[in-house]
Amino acid sequence: LIHAITCDSLWEAVIVASGDVLQAFFGAWLLTRSGFDLRLQSLHGYLRLILLGGIISVAFGALVVSAILQFSGLPIHEHYFYGLRNWWMSDTLGVILITPLILTWWQTKGNWHKTGRMIEALLLLALTILMGQIVFFDWLRNSIVHAPKAYWMFIPITWVAIRFGIREATTAMVVVAVMGLFGAV
């Protein structure tokens, strides 16, 4: 849709969209063939998701689409490898962050709302956002003697993971990643 409403041609939009679908199906096929556990209950499963669903399938899709665009005669970006690398990095980052978020919220059940721990969950979310603002957006720069480092973000992430579980930990990681990306921009 983005390619179709920008100045790109309709054929280019169709090729890119087809490539995105191709890499998603290829990643799902690779993960299914390897016996991937959708619950993401182990580090091995998460690393398998990164390798097969992120690195390999996204590289395959990006290479296929880039080759089709190259040989189709459509005008492509003058920095071919730079565009290819950015495509691969952005889609792989999506697999690393968004796919676990979707899988964990879809597969598991949370108990924080049933056990009355909602206040703790909200306070942890607020702490995560506050620390993210301090680390990534330089809040309180004049009040803190030493500049906060990004590894400070492990404190609320670890707390969330220990107290709540994988669903809430993946949510906190996505919140931190979004703040980090906006802070970098």
Textual characterization of the structure:
The chain has 185 residues and is mainly alpha-helical. 73% of the residues lie in helices and 0% in strands. The chain is built from 7 helices and no strands. It has helices at 2-5, 10-33, 43-72, 80-107, 118-137, 154-163, 166-184.
The total count of helices amounts to: 7
The count of strands amounts to 0
Largest sheet: none
Low confidence ranges: none
* Rg measurement, Å: 20 Å
- State the share of residues found in helices, binned by percent: over 70%
Label the structural class: mainly alpha
Distance between the termini: 24 Å
- Average per-residue pLDDT, rounded, comes to 84
How would you describe the shape? globular
